[in-house]
Amino acid sequence: SIQIPKERLPPEKPTIIKCRSPEKETFTCWWKPASDSTNHTLLYSKEGEEKVYECPDYKTAGPNSCYFDKKHTSFWTIYNITVRATNEMGSNVSDPHYVDVTYIVQPDPPVNITLELRKSIKRKPYLVLTWSPPPLADVRSGWLTLEYELRLKPEEGEEWEVQYQIWQFWPILKIKVICNSFLHADYAYSGCMSSNNSVCFLDFRVKDMV
Amino acid sequence: SIQIPKERLPPEKPTIIKCRSPEKETFTCWWKPASDSTNHTLLYSKEGEEKVYECPDYKTAGPNSCYFDKKHTSFWTIYNITVRATNEMGSNVSDPHYVDVTYIVQPDPPVNITLELRKSIKRKPYLVLTWSPPPLADVRSGWLTLEYELRLKPEEGEEWEVQYQIWQFWPILKIKVICNSFLHADYAYSGCMSSNNSVCFLDFRVKDMV
Amino acid sequence: LPICPNGSVNCQLSLEELFDRAVKLSHYIHFLSSEMFNEFDERYAQGRGFIAKAVNSCHTASLTTPEDKEQAQQIHHEDLLNLILGVLRSWNDPLIHLASEVQRIKEAPETILWKAVEIEEQNKRLLEGMEKIVGRVHSGEVGNDIYTPWDGLPSLQLADEDSRLFAFYNLLHCLRRDSHKIDNYLKVLKCRLIHDNNC
After folding, report:
1. What average pLDDT score do residues C86-93 get?
2. Does C131 score more than 90 pLDDT?
3. A119-123: long-range contacts at Cβ-Cβ below 8 A with a sequence spacing of 24 or more?
4. Which residues of chain B lie closer than 8 angstroms to C196, CB-CB?
């Protein structure tokens, strides 16, 4: 059988992996490059329009990506996005990837998380947890409403347990813990300070309230 | 010194106390009468018009008030309102009171509030709170948008704590409460079910979303 | 919610989805406009009697818009949509200048500054959305005829502080009023066209 050298074939079909908007103002798409291609071109059209546009910025978000700045990001339309891989033998186009910016918002994690053990007036210990919203997210204006989710897990445990969803309150959480007697939460519960004082892992998942 | 009997003087200046619209369709103004006057007349003019009108209805809203029904109520326009007090010696006119009905909407409280304790599938108890919009408010047509605010206060406490603001969701709220072990809130927190099962006062404040 | 399941040809946002986003945006713009007006009023307008002078002085006053619930419910939805577009367009120019001129107000607080910029940006975004909605609802071409020019820039730059502050007061008063009109009309239209008046 005649063996056609690998590079003499047109490239395989590239695949668009993911598109994400960190703050509902811009978005980025990434693709998995076709292995045997010399270059890739991202093309997109907007619903109801024939016109096809090319990716406005291949650089900002790194290799195999396309960054859509504010000017190129519309909140009112569905994007039909494809990626074309090309080599000297021809090209191949990915399946279309449809994007509605409202539904690809995935905020960055919160920052500056601090945890402090304090004593109340009645000498009861409690933890004060503070954090700041992700820098990129303009939460002060209300355009992006974040919901924080406090999740706790004992050191040796596997499962993260959602303790509380805080809706955009100024990120401070008082967790009143009375060991071994009655656990009562002002805002949320921290089950960590059990009798053997196991360390408590605090993890945050942030969701945009679309 | 010659004493002029009190009633021989013209009346003092009356003052307009307040204007309020309960459902953004009609409105009422109240004034503090001048003590020594025989009667009061409310006069008003509307933005962009020279014409001066008299109060259409002095009766419906009780003494020292003027009720403007739908026909006499316009939005996004400034009313210039004055009240004139008169007695046989003369009259005196209040300072002008400028009103845009759009910004004096103060809805009536919600009605039919019910609170029910239920058990989830995992046998965890939770409270279900339901209520109805104030009857006068036409929220169905979209003309008036209400925001509900759930506030909680432990029985002996003084301070109402705003737990959650609900924007026009169909008025139902699930509050998950697990007595004596772990308190956790899905939507809002009810700190009442403490060890001695003290009663929890649920109070509502309703704001028009102006 | 799979977007465009199996790549259906006319894959587009539903009118309901467009109205949902428009109402969220109009609500947000009015909220910012009210906050900005209240902050300015508290800081610069107390005791100056500006409200009396602000009567009948909005540049959009010449647009005949519904003034109560009955009028808003009786007007044809295409006419109301065109009115909304007209009011939004009429604010493009003043918002551009407001965002730059407000920086020159003495000790203008940061909260007023960024709101002016944010409102200008979101107003453009809402205008884009409204043109999309009108394009969907209107059978014909999107009418560009409703528009009222704004000639208030010189008054924002007056040397006399009282006159200049009144010019800002009046612009913010009119912005709060018109953004509320747009928000209210959109909510009424959404309930009418999407929820058959049963929101």
Report:
1. 96
2. yes
3. A120/A176
4. none
Paired sense of beta strands B97-100 and B78-87, if any: antiparallel
Pick the more confident residue, C140 or A143. Answer: A143
CB of C35 less than 8 A from some CB of A: no
Mean pLDDT throughout A189-198? 26
Q: B-chain residues within 8 Å CB-CB of C55?
A: 47-48, 78, 80, 98
Alpha-carbon distances of B138 from A134, A182, B107, B132, B135, rounded to whole Å: 39, 47, 11, 12, 8
Rounded Cα distance, B143 and A199, in Å: 53
Q: Which chain C residue has the Cα nearest residue B99? A: C51
User: Which residue bears the tokens 């009061």?
Assistant: B40
**For residue B112, what is the enclosing H or E element?**
strand B111-119
Q: Interface pTM (ipTM) of the complex? A: 0.74
In tens, the pLDDT along A89-121 reads: 899 999 999 999 988 988 888 888 888 877 777
A65 strand-pairing partners: A30
**A36 falls in which pLDDT band (50, 70, 90)?**
confident
Residues 6+ apart with CB under 8 A from B202: B113, B115, B129, B150, B151, B152
**Among the listed residues B48, B36, B40, the one whose alpha carbon sits nearest the alpha carbon of residue B17:** B40
**Separate counts of helices (H) and strands (E) for chain A:** 0, 14
Contacts of A167 in chain B (CB under 8 A): 164
Q: Which CA distances in Å does B166 have to A167, B145, B163, B173?
A: 11, 11, 10, 9
A100 vs C: CB within 8 A = yes
C125: contact with B, CB 8 A cutoff: no
Chains touching C, CB cut-off 8 Å, 3+ pairs: A, B
For residue range B101-124, list pLDDT tens digits in order: 999 999 988 888 888 888 777 777
Distance of CA C175 to the CA centre of its chain: 7
* Closest residue in B to A168 (Cα–Cα): B164
Chains with ≥3 CB–CB distances under 8 Å to B: A, C
Q: Is A192 helix (H, G, I), strand (E, B) or coil?
A: coil
CA distance A164 to B189: 10
Among the listed residues A78, A97, A80, the one whose alpha carbon sits nearest the alpha carbon of residue A17: A97
**Inter-chain contact B184–A183, Cβ cutoff 8 Å?**
no
Say how many CB pairs under 8 Å bridge B and C.
68
Q: Give residue for tokens 């009112």.
A: A76
> Who among B182, B186, B194 is closest to A189 (CB)?
B182
Joined together, the tokens standing for residue B150 give 């759930």
Q: What are the residues whose beta carbons fall under 8 Å from the beta carbon of A153, sequence distance 6 or more?
A: A159, A160, A161, A200, A201, A203
* Model confidence band, residue B175 (pLDDT cutoffs 50, 70, 90): very low
Q: Check if C56 contacts B (Cβ < 8 Å).
A: yes
- Is residue A194 within 8 Å of residue A138, measured between CB atoms? no
